[in-house]
Amino acid sequence: MSVRSRVAFASGVAGAVGAALLLSGRFEGSVVLALLLAFSIRTASLAALVDAGPILAAGAVRGLRGRVWLAPVWALSAAAAVARAGSPELDGLRGANTVAGPALAYGPTITVAGSWLAFGAAILALITWVELGAETAGATPGRVEAPSPVRRLDGIGVLAEATLVVSLFLGPQVVDGLDAAWWVGGIIPVAGAAWYARRTRLPDIAYLPALPASLAATGLALVLVGGTP
Amino acid sequence: MSVPLLLLLLAPLVGAVVAVSFAEVPSQRRILVALCSAAILGGGAAALVRSAASEVVAWRGFSADAWTALLTLGAVASVVAGISRAGALHRPGPIEAALFATAAAGIAPLLVREVHLLAVTLPVSTLAFACAVVVSSRREVLGIAQRRALVALALSDVAALLAIGTAVSSGTKLPPHLSITAGVLLLGAVALRLGLVPLWWGAVDASRAGPVLGAIWLGPIRAQGLLLVPAAVAAGRGVAYAAAAAGAATALLFSVRALRNPDVGPAATVGVSLAVLGIALGGPVALWGATLCVAAAFASIPAWYAGGALRDSIRPTLGVLPAGAVLPGAALVVAAAFDAAVVRPAFLAFALPALAGTLILAAAVASGIAGRELHPRSRGNRPAALVLGWLSLAAATALAALPVRALHGLAFPVADALGVGRLLRVGAEPGVAEDLALAMVAVAVLAFLVGPGRAGSGGPPSGSTSALPRRFALLPARLPFRIPEREWSIAGTALIAASIGIAIRVYVVAAGRGFL
């Protein structure tokens, strides 16, 4: 790996730390900042491989393309959650999920429907995974793998994005065990779905964002029409 | 007498004379040009420090507040970056002289206090740009990109001078609330100078025409556009909405272009467009975010143009620094837009494209913007590249801690200089907690040091570079219709003549009303 790859890797690690501290509630911050930091983790792990050999680099470029196309989906989903909670701060989101109930279950019917659509779009964006590695053909077929730290960083990025999705639509302030159950029950299935989807052969990513983007935009519109609970 | 202003105004003129006089003796010329460049930069930095400390920075008819000092420093840094690269061009002496002269003419509008002087200095700056176009041209005739850039700048001058002409009857200052017509004209002039949607073509052509014109446009010309933004958006709420929409759309489109082009220009444009959005929104959070974006956008040019033998190796790493520095400011501007959208959902029209653009820029920072190390296996430059990579990473991440710490240093003076009249006037505590930023910096440095693999052990992938621009292509590479070069020249000449005529008219009206 080159110096630039190391810089990309280190920026991804820094983003992981920042996102973890924000999403865990150790520091206050806005949804925008948390999204930016969480989004940067998987992006950095892909960017760390752009200077690698041709097989890994091709996958990394394809993955970066997916990240770019899915950025509007993340923006629309976050906007739907902010509009439903009535606050752009992470504390405000958790407070709304505590006081009014999780966005996916409580509130005006139209708002709940919109939250489900935006939630589904965020899940689709999360599970769109370009695996860092490829099977090689030849006399002795093998597999080209990315360095293990980069793969771990990628996994941490998935976990951070899953936590962000739960923060947006499910997670309340943690006061007792039941509150923690919302978080655990949200993060594990979401991260598990993303992990399961990593070996799935997806169609050309250039055409894929239309579905989650449409879902997220419709969800945002419904939340705006339905109003806050 | 203010030494910073003297250095800013006189050192470029001395540099122009020296560059021409010593054109045939390269070694002496390089030393003297470096001294003049250092004097200009020193003057700009001193003016910014003193104005941020609320000290008076004035000399005769020139003065600088925190905002204009920031713009001036950014403008001269960009021009000096261009000068540092001029030594490798075909006629270094005349080109360096043209750059120095353009710096003097380009920063004069930023430092004058009266509006009738602004009317004079803007066309003079355009004439200096035209001279630089001719001098830097390798061929006998100018290329189509150079002509189109010249036309765009002259058109921007005409629009700005028409707006100023309608305001000059009220005195020698730009009135705090221009008429709507004047505001729209001024916004058009701003959009042309800053390369905002839908009038981005002039800035793009200038960057495409060559490093010299790119340095001038991204420096002084862009600073002039930013100078006019507050006056334009103060004309009315509708103009401010239009400016915010243009800024948000530009951020989205040029963030994609930042991935397409291994150049820092599109990323700088994203920073500037988010700054326009922040200024249009107003309030402490958005204004501080705009200030950070502007500073980072200006810093990107010298970082990208960093000359010397190490350039090929360290440029990609250096490119990460300014592009990454845009992100903290962008996060603040977008957060302010989302804050407003909670109360008025219409603001989502600005917040969503700006957020998507910021996320895409984050991807560009890590990949496309920084380009590719041209000689990844070069052993000689490796220690310097490592040190600079380490420093740039620490500095870029540490910028996240600046908003809280530096709030009383630069943000308040800049906000005072920008005045009021924008869409928002309240906001929460800006920035990221210092402890969080410190933790991120520490972990990033550790990760850089113990990161995977040996530095430089990777090889370039085959075939992916040429395919990347096509994959991210959203905008047409060429216009569907072509206008011949001769027609562009005629249009540019006519517009420059019109701008000079309007400038004379403004000056005569000001004199007739006893303002001089």
Q: What are the secondary-structure elements of chain B, in order, as H or E?
A: HHEEHHHHHHHHHHHHHHHHHH
Oligomer: heterodimer
Spatial ordering of strands, largest sheet of chain A: 1-2
Gross morphology of chain A is elongated
Number of strands of chain A: 2
Task: Give the biggest beta sheet of chain A.
Answer: 2 strands, antiparallel
Output the structural class of chain B: mainly alpha
Biggest interface and which pair forms it? Answer: A-B, 67 and 74 residues
**Biggest β-sheet: strands ordered side by side in the sheet of chain B:** 1-2
Strand residue percentage of chain B: under 5%
N-to-C CA distance of chain A? 50 Å
Helix content of chain A: 55-70%
Q: Mean pLDDT of chain A, as a whole number?
A: 83
What is the ordering of alpha helices and beta strands of chain A?
Answer: HHHHHEEHHH
Number of helices of chain A: 8
Poorly predicted sequence stretches spanning 5 or more consecutive residues of chain B: 369-384, 420-428, 454-481
* Strand portion of chain A: under 5%
Outline the structure in words.
- The complex is a heterodimer of chains A (229) and B (516).
- Chain A is built from eight helices and two strands.
- Chain A has helices at residues 3-23, 31-47, 54-85, 90-99, 109-127, 148-169, 177-196, 210-226; strands at residues 133-136, 142-145.
- Chain A has a two-stranded antiparallel sheet with strand order 1-2.
- Chain B has helices at residues 3-21, 26-52, 66-86, 92-111, 115-136, 144-167, 180-194, 201-209, 211-233, 237-260, 265-281, 284-305, 311-343, 348-366, 382-398, 402-405, 407-418, 434-449, 464-471, 485-512, and strands at 57-59, 62-64.
- In chain B, α6 (144-167) packs parallel to α20 (485-512).
- Chain B is globular.
- The model of chain B is unreliable at 369-384, 420-428 and 454-481 (pLDDT under 50).
- Chain B has 516 residues and is mostly helical.
- The longest helix of chain B is centred in the middle third of the chain and has 33 residues, at 311-343.
- Chain B has a two-stranded antiparallel ribbon with strand order 1-2.
- In chain B, a hairpin with a 2-residue loop joins β1 and β2.
